[in-house]
Amino acid sequence: MKKHYFTRNLEGHVQDMQELAPVIKQLAELVNIYSSHFKKLKREKAVMDFSDLEHYCLALLLADTATPENIEPSNVARNLQQQFSEVLVDEYQDTNLVQETILKLISDQNGAGNMFMVGDVKQSIYRFRHAEPGLFIDKYKRFADEGIAAERIDLASNFRSRELVLRGTNYIFRQIMDERLGEITYDQDAELIYANHMYDELPYQLPNPELLIIDREKQEEKETEDDGENYLDLEKAQLEARVYAQKIKRWIGKEGEKPQQIFDKTTQAQRDVQYRDIVILMRSMTWAPAIVDELKKQGIPVYAELSSGYFAAIEVKVMLSFLKAIDNPRQDIPLASVLKSPIVGMNEEELSCIRLASPRGSYYDALTKYSRENNGVLSEKVNRFFIAAERLSQAFQRRCTFRADLANIQGNRLL
Length: 415
Ligand SMILES: Nc1ncnc2c1ncn2[C@@H]1O[C@H](COP(=O)(O)OP(=O)(O)OP(=O)(O)O)[C@@H](O)[C@H]1O
Fold this sequence. Notes:
The structure is a single chain. The protein has 15 helices and 6 strands. The chain is mostly helical. Among the domains are: 106 residues, Rossmann fold; 76 residues, no CATH class; 103 residues, PCRA, domain 4. It has a two-stranded parallel sheet with strand order 1-2. A two-stranded parallel ribbon has the order 3-4. The chain has a two-stranded antiparallel ribbon with strand order 5-6. α9 packs across α10, α11 crosses α12 and α11 crosses α15. The structure holds adenosine-5'-triphosphate (ATP). The site of adenosine-5'-triphosphate has 5 residues, from loops. Its EC number is 5.6.2.4.
């Protein structure tokens, strides 16, 4: 480990830090300037972003004399405390510190207490939004103590899923979850207990939960022998989709086996499974477009609410920026987007070098000035942009002339 990761000595690190310090200082200043411009703009347009909602709310509820150690309620908060007899909070595991302070300010902190919180730390998904599951865990542990006024109620019964789903879930999580991984030990208290006995009476085939593991390296050997396709080159999403496709085809009965039987709640009868009965749940939508594409390729009808579309595709966005930049090159953002795209291929440092040629005015002015005054690799890139822009502009004009001619001909015919 020392050989691979800690080879540099202390002086080396100190020297790095000294070299980086002015850059970081500049960056910090930039962030501050950006933040104050952004705030000013939001105020002018009377708009708020998501975190503003929380922070302005907190500012309203805190007394002017409040400090981080002394969270004193303002008059507004005191009025709200009077108004609410109970404060109910759902998904408490995803509360962040600002929200927790807001809740404290509007609830009864001195009397018997009037806050009721429901949560499940196993479902904590908003850490990237500063959710603090520790707030939940701390209370979860403290409230179990008989000696304090607060009470913990374990809602262990699960009415959402069938017995085998719960058994499978408990089996997996008992093995992989503990305080270190997942903040909580998956013991008997944390287990999901089957409680919805509605299905027990009905004669139907039990769905067995399955865990499918994709071994990329093994597949690689197999595929290379079969058809020369390099398995490691395939996107992970594509690999997953192929496994889904195989499974779905088997359930539907396309692989020679009998279709999977399911219980239809509407008709109260058993029937063959159909595509519309199957849903794929994903932890995020990042891979969804690739999975949808692959399932379609495999002949499986599929629908997903994708925010992406033709105009959201990166290459289409770049081309639209290019057209905007040709129409009026003094639009900095479309111009920068084209310069950074593979059409020109500049990186951030090169873009900054060009900006330094003329720090004020439009970016286009800086670009033309840089091109006039410099030679070298970057100038070649700049020229590449001018040539591409010229070509596209000429093609565009030819098309416009053609369309104008066409309109004339059609117009004459009409006349
Ligand atoms: N006592 C009950 N009897 C029958 N069905 C119930 C009962 N309680 C809840 N359900 C059903 O179980 C499902 C899940 O219930 P609910 O959404 O209240 O659970 P939850 O624990 O709040 O879920 P989450 O963890 O996602 O917040 C719902 O379909 C609900 O109708």
